[in-house]
Amino acid sequence: MSTPFRAKSTLEQWRIFQAVVDYGGYAQAASQLNKSQSSLNHAVSKLQNLLGIQLLEVKGRKAHLTPMGEVMLRRSKLLSQNIQDLETLAASLEQGWEPKLALAVEIIQPQAPVIKALKAFLPDSRGTRVEVIDTVISGADDAIHDGEYDLVITAQLPQGVLGEPLNAVTLVPVVHRNHPLAKMPQPVSIDEVLQHVQLVIKDTGKNPKQDRGWLRAEQRWTFSSFKQVVDVLKQGLGFAWLPMHIAQSYFEEESLVELNIQGGAAKSLTTYLVVPRPELLGPAGQHFSKLLLQHCKAYR
Question: Which segments of the protein form a coiled coil according to its record (predicted)?
């Protein structure tokens, strides 16, 4: 067994070295740290002797970094930041701040407000690891009932489950502009549409429900994301229901078009924020929930 590594230097020595550089000299650093100038001189001198390299050289009344000192300063500041982060995390855990936050998001939920909420959460995250997982149709039900997620965004509330409304989402039937359905006299009948291949997103639930969502045509090609569906649509293959917030940019570039189906085919849904176990949601989850509700409201 190898001998455990024992550090020669101390964090306090590195802190003093950083202060001398940051404040421009020993006298200024001594004043800021409320220590004697001689004690700072001794600490830095001892650090240099232990390492066998010169970190600082005094010119006039000011201490200047040597080239080796510049390298060690950068690395030592990373060390100091890591120690600060560790202590902040420990204090957060003591206060009940969660080390991990798991969020399940129904794939039709607009991503923009979720990303803005994550961006707003980062400065206050205190080291909390965030896990964001996509779900589709009944996958959100599983996420609510299994208890593995702190927060769930779903497009359909299971019976007996309460949720805060987030965003209205409209699903529209879409094909490539050169697809045979786009060339037919409009509006087309749903029977005509269902004779073509439907591109769908795979239900991520343990027991997929074929009677929910956009599953309708007998001939279906299944994918794991809307990006894959759009890529296939742009090749002139099949039709699909896309959320309007995804389809809009393709309508504007005229690569995809919305189908005009007799009787109307748009589907309106509302996404909801569900807290599966409210009694166990800690301060990090509560804070992120507020940010998510705030940014989803602004997105409307």
Answer: none
